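Quick note —
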Amino acid sequence: MSINILDSFNYKGRRPDFVRQQFGTIEAMRTFSENYLPDMYLCYCLEDGKVYLYNKDNAVDQTTGRWRQLESGGGGGDMTNYYTKTETNTLLNGKQDVLEYDSVPTFGSTKVMTSNAIATALTGKQDALTVDSTPTSGSSNPVTSGGVYTALSGKQATLTFDSAPTANSDNPVKSNGIKSYVDTAETNAKADWFLRGPMIARDTDFNTLTTQGHYYVNSNDSASTMTNIPVPYGGRLEITTIIGDTAYLRQTYYANTDRTGLICIRRQKTSTSGWSDWVILSTHEECGAIANLGAKNLSRATFTSNDNIYGIAVTANADGTVTANGTATAPAILQSSTFTLKAGTYIFSCSENPQRDSTYDAYVYNVDASTTIARDNPNDSPGTTFTLAQDTTVRINLRVANGYTANNVVFKPMIMDAAIVDATYQPPTPTNAELNDSKITMLNILGAGTRITATSEAPLNFDDAPFTTVGRFNWLSASAAYITNCPSYINGEAKGGSLEVSYVQGPASVLQTVYPSAGADSPSIFWRRFRYGGGTTSNPYRWTNWFAFAGTEVVPPNAQTTNLVGEMRSVAPSLEESDVENPVELQEDEMR
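Predicted structure written out below.
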């Protein structure tokens, strides 16, 4: 029941007339119980100083509930379609506060540009685009569509290619067609040169090629895939037979290299006997170089064994090679002794498979200039060529790369005259000039030597002492017939002569040289032989055959001499496997 008041209240305090007439915060206003509010009601909010109107029909807002801020001039109507301040702030968040302008056109900018900036940028620009009606040489103007169409009229719509070069054709040729044409022409040319024999396929084993005829290897790359080929070069193979169709087969390979005259030969007696080793025939230049020098390996480097060079154990072998074992903890370098190389052009080889930085290699080093002259290179065969303009002091350095594990890696240092094509290793031996210097020195020291006399009652044998120690001996022709193992027979007649005895590598390795006495019928000739072995029961001393150098036919005085006049590459006497116990034996081939 309502209370009727006939007159107004006279309240003059600072508090509001009613509790619901004023709220301290919007949250207090929102949470005020609607049970104590009429359908519409005005209140004041001290938090933002605004007037709010309550309407029970308003939707509930998360911030103000059913209260809505009373705008100026508002009559407190339905505020459903109006945004609150919070909603408005959210919508305006991130919007541009003040519009920004670019004063000049700026690449990548999203700003608008002032009218003046646009006018300035367009100043001096073409007012109207100039277009050429036809394609015009030297013009930078665009061409009208009709002009382009007219210019292309009558042109080839689709380019036509020939698959191979064709006579009288104006068409271009496909790249593959050109390559096929060139390859075919090159193959035909090679087939003509190789007597049109069939090409040997990659990965072929030369041991299986037994049919008579002519064949060819078309490239060095193909040759590198084949087994039992004598050299890694393309070339021509000729298979012939002496008896029947399969007996005594002979393979002759003519290598196609920059070095002329590289011919290799081997034979097979029967289909079950297997093939012999390949023999590389020497060129005139190679034979001349060896004959003039008297030695193949001109290196005078000596190495000293060492148990630990940064983890690598090196062994200096008696034949001049060096064996390396172990894992290198740093670049392990073994230096040889120094020696002098005369001015000239040489070939250096050392390692069978040098890889330089990754595994191991070797190089010739100029001691005076402190520079590398030549490095062992796997891509050079028979080795790396280098030229010295003057006599040079050098040494050979052997290197194992850091981190590489060497497992019986064998270095075979060899320096050859550049005319030599056979890279098969031979130990260093004295040259003719060095031997001649030694001979002169010995003659100066020993003079004419000791006169020896042999008779039927008191014969002598050059296998025995005192002819195995350094010295010089001479004899008359009357004694020659009674000296066993003496080669001084000329045209069947015993001759007087002289014997020089020297050591190659100590008393075990004895070198004997016999010179016949001078005379009108005596040609310029001498003989040499070499003693090897260990002087033990299991490895006794043995002598090679006598080998004759220069002159006319040699008549052997007994079964222990061999006629090899002018032969600079004779095959060594057959040795049992046990004979190779002493490394000095490996030098026998160089003594001839």
